[in-house]
Amino acid sequence: MEYHSPVSLQDAVDLLNDGDAKIVAGATDFFPGLERGRAPERLLDVSRVSEMRGISVSEAGWRIGGATTWSEILEFPFPPAFAGLKAAAREVGSVQIQNAGTVGGNLCNASPAADGVPPLLTLEAVVETVSASGSRLVPLEEFIVGVRSVNLEPDEICAAIHVPGRIRDGRGSFLKLGARRYLVISISMVAVLVHVAPNGAVSEARISVGACSPVAKRMTELEAAVVGLSAEELESDFPSDPKFLDPLAPLDDIRASAVHRMQATTELCRRAVIEAVNLADGNNA
Ligand SMILES: Cc1cc2nc3c(=O)[nH]c(=O)nc-3n(C[C@H](O)[C@H](O)[C@H](O)COP(=O)(O)OP(=O)(O)OC[C@H]3O[C@@H](n4cnc5c(N)ncnc54)[C@H](O)[C@@H]3O)c2cc1C
User: Which ligand 1 atom minimizes the distance to the CA of 93?
Assistant: First the structure.
C-alpha cells in the first residue's frame, strides 16, 4: 500500500489528482469500516495538511479546517452560539477518539448518527471543497445527500467548514439520547441555535434533529413555532404538535423503535430549546 501524508493542501490535491486514493484524517471511521482489514492501494492522510488544521475568525465568520479534531473544537474560545457544537464534540466517542477524529471526517463519513451534523446545520455551515480545478462552497444541507453519501467528487477534499458571522449573537445547545451515557451511537439528537430578544423571547430559532432520518434535518415549522416565546412559555407550553416533526422518518432498529425515537425527539427538542434560551450571555460555551 502507498501511504502519503502531505503537509500542504496543494500537495494533497496533486496527490489526489494523480490517481485513485482514499482520503483519511483521524481514520476513526475508516479503520472500523475496513472490510476484513482489506486496505486500499493508496492512502492519502490529510491530518498534517496545515491549511486544514485549526480554527480562524474574521468579520465574515469562522473557518474550521477540515482536519480539525474534536478536541481542538473543545479547546477553542467560541462564543455561546457554538455551545451545541462543543457539546456534540464532548459526545464523539471517548477522549482518544476526540483527539484523532476530525470535523471533516465526521461530515464526509455521512452517518445518519454523526454528532457533528445537527449543530453545524444550526450554525448554517458551508463546506469548502478543493480540487486541482478549483474550490466550491457547498451549504451543509446540500453536502450530505444520503446515508454515507456526500456531494464530493473523487478528486475533491473537504478543506474547511465555514460558519457565517451572522450567527454570532446566538445561543446554542445539543442533546443526545443513547442507550447508555458514554461511547454510544445516538438514538436521537437535537441541536438548537436561538437568538433571544431583550424582552427574553426567542427572536430567531434553528433546530435540527439527527439519527431520525437518513440525513439530519432542520425542523423549520417548529423553529417558526418557538419564535416569540419566552423561557417560561417554552417550559409551560412547548409547541408539541407531531406535525412539527414531519420531516423525520425514524427507523425501527436494534437501538430503538421508531415510536420511541419520535417521543424522545419531542422531549429533546423541548429541553434543548429551553437550555439554549437560558444559556447566559458571554458564556464561553
Ligand atoms: C469507538 C468509536 C466511537 C465513536 N463514537 C462516535 C460518536 O459518538 N459520534 C460520532 O459522530 N462519531 C463517532 N465515531 C465516529 C468517528 O470517530 C467520527 O465520525 C470522526 O469525526 C471521524 O473523523 P476521522 O477524521 O477519524 O474520519 P476518517 O475515518 O479519517 O474518515 C471518515 C470518512 O471521511 C473521509 N474523509 C475524511 N476527511 C476527509 C476530508 N477532509 N475530505 C474528504 N474526505 C474525507 C474518508 O475518506 C472516510 O470516508 C466513533 C468512532 C469510534 C471508533
Answer: 5
